[in-house]
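so im writing up the methods section and need the MyTH4 domain-containing protein record in one place, dumping it here so i stop losing it
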Amino acid sequence: MRFMGDSPPRGLTDFLICVCVCVCVCVSSPQLIGEFTLMRDEAYCQLLKQLTTNTSSKPESCQRGWRLLYILTAFHRCSEVLKPFLLKYLQQASRSAGAQYQGIAKACEQNLKKTFQYGGRIIPPNSMELKAMMAGRSSKRQLFLFPGGIERHVKIKTCSVALEVIEELCYEMGLHRLEAMEEYAIFLVTNRGQNVRPLNKHEYILDVATEAELVDTNYSFWFRRVVWTQPLKFENELCVAMHYNQILPDYRKGLLNVLPHGKVSDQQFHQITKLAALQHRAKDIIFIPSIHELSEYIAAPLFKKQPPQQWVTMVTQHMQQVQTLNPHQARAQFLGKKLHQLHHLLRPLYCCCQSTWSPLPAQKYTCKEPHTHTFTHTLTINRHRYDSTHRD
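--- predicted struct ---
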């Protein structure tokens, strides 16, 4: 009643305290809830009663009640006994012609369904999020960084999970098949890149953000490909740029080159120089690259295999061929040249990488061999050390 304005409040802070009590008691005191979540059911029933038989003279009373219901449905399940009645109440409120709170009733219904699907939010909202929800703002634009520093902003709602963000970013890259989307992940990055962890696809983005702010206010979210089995879409510029920027650092370090007995064949020299020319053209440059630029395009162990001027001569021949390409086409050709090696080199490395972080103190990753799905390696990481366990 105090939150809805029917009991004398003690300022804005008091409203925040009321919400925190409603959210935190149910989150942090499972022993008080019981087998059938009686405390949560009681909170729902009392709130619905105040909304249904609201006789308050204050116009904001009902509005505040719906906003509190919006918060509760994002955090707490009700019992299976109450569920059908609560859903029916919300559906009737959202579909009744001329109903005043149709929009927020529909949002509450969506929140509740997600809570049953993903478990509900587990981190109490900070004061900034609470103030926004009290003001009727239920979403924010969150920055996600692609490889190469490409920025994408995604509209994050109260109950948005990592899976939904991945789907939206994949749609933008022209990827619509579920098998393709499963090969991407969101990472939380803190402490200037020193700490990086993948998000479980069912984690709530705002839960992760709220927790990260306590550790590092300059946290960021990265979007990366982690499994390499599905074919690449070369016609989508964002998709090509994302993959090009992700593999380029490893290629320049020599991690994607296989040299039998440490020797470079004539065919490999030809391919390396063609890839160097494509990298140069991808920067939208048509002039011949300098020796310094070539030393960046070619991995150091390979660059030492012949005199620098010889590299310049060989790359110059290819530059005449790639001048007609635009930067997108150059990046696409680069990926096409390396794609067969990527499948052989990256698939065994990443394969199937799943995080069981929830907020458990350790994260576990299980790798499977492609096609056979045989478990071969388990890596468990926590804050202090890592344990590597092989399985026969």
